[in-house]
Amino acid sequence: MTNSPSPDSPRPQPQSSRRRDLGFDDFIGILVAFSTIGAILFWVLGRNEGFKGFPAVTGIVESPQPAEQGGVAIPSTGILPAQPSPLATVTPTPGVPVLIDPTKESPTPIGVPSPTGRVARVIPAIPVIVAPPPRPRTTQAAKSVKFVDVPDNFWAKPFIQSLQTRGVIGGFPRGYFKPNQPVTRAEFALMTQAIFEQNPVREAVEYKDVPSDFWAASAIEKASRIGFLKGYPGNTFRPKQQLSKVQAIVALANGLGLQSPADPGKTLQVYKDANQIPAYAKNAVAAATEAGLVVNHPDAAVLNPNKMVTRAEVAALIHQAMVNEGKAQKINSKFIVQPK
């Protein structure tokens, strides 16, 4: 007789073929396991070459730009100092350059990393400009100028060119020299003092008609002191007065200290118009003639002593005076007076 189960007894459930679902605790365990493995892998790879673009963890922060101080770029090493530097403000953000305050006028020490990790203090060198030694003063020759009114066959061109290249005499606008223009006493003073350096023979004189702001005031003072020109009674100079040829010859003879020959009259016989030479000027003209200073154009035997001297004639006279002083080379000219 078989016992049948009671209708009130629970029926046995059939065994399920499906796997049991993961619970919350199981999920947490798996997550912890993977996190641990990932952390170990990240640490191992981080000590070598980095992982997919992540920099190696070495305590070095790369800086993409150099810091600047006073306009001078300071290469950034990316090494953070072990202790704060009093010279720089370091931000903890990687990739930000170190900024150094450049507002001080004196050089600010620059932080340079040392092998110990500390920042060494280096003061940038200040460039020192060394002044060149002074050059000795030399007389520089001026560039030769071709004047439009002084042709190559002009009788006084060699004399004019000699003085022009030495800066003793100049021209006028548009390339003119005006060789036949008369010369004033102020202009003659300017020419003579520019080339001659004789010792003073008299004290400086303050002429009433030569104010301190006159364009040739200093030249007149020097020419007067070294004996080339004298003033007139009443302490006047008459700077704008035109100079005669005999006055120019006397001025050069006196300034150079030329000695009159024993027989001035005999020397003056070389001139056809010797009788026109003023008495006060005969000794000086004779001395200048013996020294080879006198140049006459168009006839070497005609002095024309009282005629107003021209710029061309003054150039010839001054050049011959320079030859006498050893300051210029001789020029071959048929207009130079040769004493008998």
Task: List the topology elements.
Layout: H1 24-46, E1 67-69, E2 72-74, E3 110-113, E4 119-122, H2 157-165, H3 185-195, H4 217-225, H5 245-256, H6 264-268, H7 282-290, H8 311-324
Keywords:
340 residues; mainly alpha; two-stranded antiparallel ribbon; 8 helices; 27% helix; rod-shaped
Strand elements, count:
4
What's the order of the H and E elements? HEEEEHHHHHHH
Report the helical percentage. Answer: 25-40%
Radius of gyration: 52 Å
Uncertain spans, ≥5 residues at pLDDT below 50? 4-10, 49-100, 102-106, 127-139
Instruction: Give a quick account of the main beta sheet: strands, pairing sense, barrel closure.
Output: 2 strands, antiparallel
What is the count of DSSP helices, taking H or I runs of 4+ residues? 8
What share of residues are in beta strands? Answer: under 5%
Structural class by SSE content: mainly alpha
- The average pLDDT score comes to 77
How do the strands of the widest beta sheet line up side by side?
A: 1-2
Shape summary: rod-shaped
What features would you describe in this structure?
The protein has 340 residues and is mainly alpha-helical. Among the domains are: 140-183 and 243-340, no CATH class; 185-241, no CATH class. The chain contains eight helices and four strands, in the order αββββααααααα. The strands form two sheets. The protein has a two-stranded antiparallel ribbon. A two-stranded antiparallel ribbon has the order 3-4. Strand 1 and strand 2 form a beta hairpin. Helix 3 (185-195) crosses helix 4 (217-225), helix 5 packs across helix 7 and helix 5 (245-256) packs parallel to helix 8. The longest helix is centred in the first third of the chain and has 23 residues, at 24-46. The protein is rod-shaped, with a radius of gyration of 52 Å. The chain starts with 23 loop residues before the first helix and ends in a 16-residue tail after the last helix. The model is unreliable at 4-10, 49-100, 102-106 and 127-139 (pLDDT under 50).
